[in-house]
Fold these 2 entries.
Entry 1:
Amino acid sequence: MDKLLLHCCCGPCSMYPISFLKSKNTELDMFWFNPNIHPEFEWKRRLDNLRIVASYYNEELIEVGSSLESYWMDCQFLSSFNSRCEMCYDMRIDMVAEYCASHDYRAFTTTLLVSPYQNHEEIVRIANEKAKKYGTKFEYHDFRDGYRTGQDMAREIGLYRQKYCGCILSLEESKYRDKILKSFEEA
Ligand code: SF4
């Protein structure tokens, strides 16, 4: 198949990469697999947000996994990585690469590459490693120049823009922690 599989970490971060890829006439399917997002309410809220993006761009959205995949809580799995973010990228990109290979996409990439707040080099290293593991291709894009543009686009179409990365630890570390917890209570 001559399509790119685009892993989407959330709605706002997907806006610029999809717009960029479409401007290059790239055929793509969007792919949701983000069990790192806690709590479940937030996981669902971000997925709903991404559905809005899929419909805005008229693109197919493939949805895989739940908010609490068992291996996220597996201590042995966790201890084999240097950091929680390395584990988080590894877990998600492994699934993307496996799906890409088994469904005959020409390559995969990820919207994680748009964020200046993520470890860009680590994501690229893991993506190349997973492409090799499954005998498929990782298509590298440095989307970071479009980060602000993408956030503005998200604001324009009224998307929810989260204030923490996704896992429960990033929620605890967020300077908006109390406000976020309050939003869960009010929902
Ligand atoms: S901070 Fe973000 S990238 Fe790191 S583990 Fe948490 S959700 Fe994953």
Note: The two ends are 42 Å apart (CA to CA).
Entry 2:
Amino acid sequence: MKTILHLSVSLLLFSGCNQQQADKSAGNLAVQVQELKEKYRPGFGEYMIGIQLHHSKLWYAGINNNWKLADYEIGEIKESFESIKDVETDRPESKTVGIIEPAIASLTAAIVQKDEKEFRKSYDLLTAACNNCHTTNHYEFNVIITPTAPPVNNQDFTAKP
Ligand code: HEC
């Protein structure tokens, strides 16, 4: 009887100890996950470089009436801004993403309608909104324009039948 009691007390202590250990390693894991998130989180500027490339590709897709590609590029731009809102929560600029949203909506509509004239107009709106956000956030020296040459030479922007 004494032995059984002894055994159960030790088991109890042992499992309590295990619980503590488990709590500790879960805590460590949470800290590690947080550290990794910080380390591998794209910075605001990195999102912007991606957006810059999509902005340029979008132009060549639209003026070539390559609506499938244009739809893809505007989708990528939209997603990047959604990620900025989700991920860059400690940057006050993330609260101003709304500046770009009407232009994205207007471009999306032009692309759905396969309307090049509307596309060109909405593209100007988009570029103006990029610059508007930069000015609002004191990055007015990052001036965005309609591209004058394709951003890459290893991609064909023309529409395929
Ligand atoms: C929510 C506001 C906002 C909008 C909208 C916005 N930007 Fe930016 N952009 C910024 C901020 C803030 C920076 C500076 C980021 C940093 O480096 O910390 C920046 C920087 C940039 C840079 C410089 C990146 C570098 O390191 O060289 C480019 C290029 C750029 N943006 C392109 C664009 C384009 C193209 C659009 C429109 C499709 C756009 N941005 C829309 C806020 C915005």
Note: Residues 2-40 form the longest helix (39 residues).
